[in-house]
Amino acid sequence: xxxxxxxxxxxxxxxxxxxxxxxxxxxxxxxxxxxxxxxxxxxxxxxxxxxxxxxxxxxxxxxxxxxxxxxxxxxxxxxxxxxxxxxxxxxxxxxxxxxxxxxxxxxxxxxxxxxxxxxxxxxxxxxxxxxxxxxxxxxxxxxxxxxxxxxxxxxxxxxxxxxxxxxxxxxxxxxxxxxxxxxxxxxxxxxxxxxxxxxxxxxxxxxxxxxxxxxxxxxxxxxxxxxxxxxxxxxxxxxxxxxxxxxxxxxxxxxxxxxxxxxxxxxxxxxxxxxxxxxx
Length: 280
Ligand SMILES: NC(=O)c1ccc[n+]([C@@H]2O[C@H](COP(=O)([O-])OP(=O)(O)OC[C@H]3O[C@@H](n4cnc5c(N)ncnc54)[C@H](OP(=O)(O)O)[C@@H]3O)[C@@H](O)[C@H]2O)c1
What we know:
CATH architecture: 3-Layer(aba) Sandwich
Largest sheet: 7 strands, parallel
CATH topology: Rossmann fold
Strand order of the largest sheet: 3-2-1-4-6-7-9
CATH superfamily: NAD(P)-binding Rossmann-like Domain
Radius of gyration: 19 Å
Distance between the termini: 57 Å
Bound molecules: NADP nicotinamide-adenine-dinucleotide phosphate
Number of domains: 1
Order of helices and strands: EHEEHEEHHEHEEHHEHH
């Protein structure tokens, strides 16, 4: 039994719930945080798991959840910033309010939780922060530009933070998944009906294309991408010597290989041909 403690955000579904179970099975204390703990049953029944309310957009909620975790388990060794959601649509279809909301969750949510745990980690001169980003934070993803920019922000912030915190022996890692069949698509902000006729028409073309592409990407390698691989990667980042940036998924690895083997413009041309119907 490790006896160590992890706090994970967004544990109601998907990677967050799987990660909570993965750490628990390997002997960790788990603060499985979520917006609506009253709806959770499965995690509540597990030994050494405490289900705690935490909305990453709310400072008070973050601070209370961190304090409750330390009070319950005495420590936080690892913070996993997993909570987040996607956004489909042409850039102009996203109102500023939608963009602000997405950044408040995907970017400022990670910063809020890190700000809350860092004094504790600095004091004990150890700890790991793992930020779940996306392949959309490694390459610019059309039709997802709001989401993509939020995940790029977290990748850049994490890289700088990893260096900044090394004198305190605190590690920072990113886990960038490709496409996986969680509740992610159902929870995505679809702004495809907004704006003028031309935008809505192009959004329809892109939606059709992305539905097919996303199916192909999820099945690269012959079988559906397994979300447990992401939970395992998060666990590895908490327990093994890992680089700052980590991608997971056959599609993500294939795209990273392409990115690394081409010039920046060649890679953009390659992506455009793949992602934009009718691109020349
Ligand atoms: N699945 C993929 O293909 C994929 C690919 C790349 C990256 N990702 C990233 O992986 C992470 C997890 O996504 P997933 O695939 O597991 O999707 P998911 O099943 O939709 O899970 C997202 C989780 O985030 C939570 N959440 C959303 N807003 C929150 C807030 N303000 N405060 C606290 N929790 C909040 C949701 O809680 P509620 O139940 O309360 O809504 C849910 O638990 C996200 O950061 C996502 O961007 C996913």
